[in-house]
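[Help] Beginner question about ligand-bound structures

Sorry if this is basic. My supervisor gave me a protein sequence and a SMILES string for zinc ion and asked me to "get the holo structure". I don't really know what that means in practice or what format the answer should be in. Inputs are pasted below exactly as I got them.
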Amino acid sequence: MAEPKKQRSRSRSRKAKNNLGWKAPSIARCIECNTVKRPHQVCMNCGEYRKNKIISTK
Ligand SMILES: [Zn+2]
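Answer (accepted):
No worries, everyone starts somewhere. Holo just means with the ligand present. The predicted complex, written as structure tokens, is below.
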């Protein structure tokens, strides 16, 4: 069996574990109105998704 050559220090393993669950917040811009929106979701400002009107706004 392969064995690790050296024991990892506490701070090293803590840093590695801290990094596990973290993800950068995903942000996309609407093509139509150029506002910040979540990716793969309908724009809340103009109601469009991939050039299709999904929700009518006003
Ligand atoms: Zn939009």
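A couple of things worth pointing out: Residues 24-58 form one domain. Residues 15 and 21 are 11 Å apart (CA to CA). Feel free to follow up in the thread.
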